[in-house]
Amino acid sequence: MTATYEDTKEQLLDAILGHVPFDGWSETSFLAAIADCDLDTGLARAICPRGAVDLALAFHVRGDESMLERIKTEDLSGLKFRDKIAAAVRFRLQAVEDKEAVRRGVTLFALPIHAADGAKAVWGTCNLIWTALGDSSEDVNWYTKRATLSGVYSSTLLYWLGDDSPDYQATWEFLDRRIDGVMQFEKLKAQVNGNPLLKPFLAVPNWLAGQVKAPAKTSDNLPGSLSSGK
Q1: What's the whole-model pTM score?
Q2: Cβ contact 162:171 at 8 Å
Q3: Which of 4, 61, 149, 201 fits a 20 to 30 Å CA distance from 220?
Q4: Which domain holds residue 22?
Q5: 201 and 90 within one domain
């Protein structure tokens, strides 16, 4: 049976993971993966035009898919919504099979030339979480929820990379604190909206928010220069 494009890409991804801890998501690792798979270099370049960068993004997508599968199979019905969000972030981090590969990925996407790719990957993860949990927000709220969660997820990821506590308990406590901070802000915003004395101060921002329409909800869209919409 002839291997498909995706099969070959997965094969390359599996192969490069053995080299990333030593050489990072680099050209050296990519060439080693090609050799390990006994692939034609031209074919590998056709599948991954940017080499290891494309495989690093594929590694991120693999983690997202694992997270989504767990969200679908776990019973979260008894949880408050903030706890569902926390659980989804935990699922995403627990989906990582190789922590060093993530550490090297953070280094890769910290480079200015790849920063947009990294931001798009994080935004995509957070969009998947909100969508999987049934978010139906519209207008500016669609953006702010994903932007806020992107900040929570990114900071938790960095904390997790340096966490050596048993079962990453310190990370989960850090995550809970970050989400509590976000929820307190949302509560304050709701109180201001409900106070007739303070509500006039939000008239202009709320009018502007009403002019913003959420785009078609696909995981590829991003705000500004990162992509076309979300």
Answers
A1: 0.82
A2: no
A3: 4
A4: 1-49
A5: yes
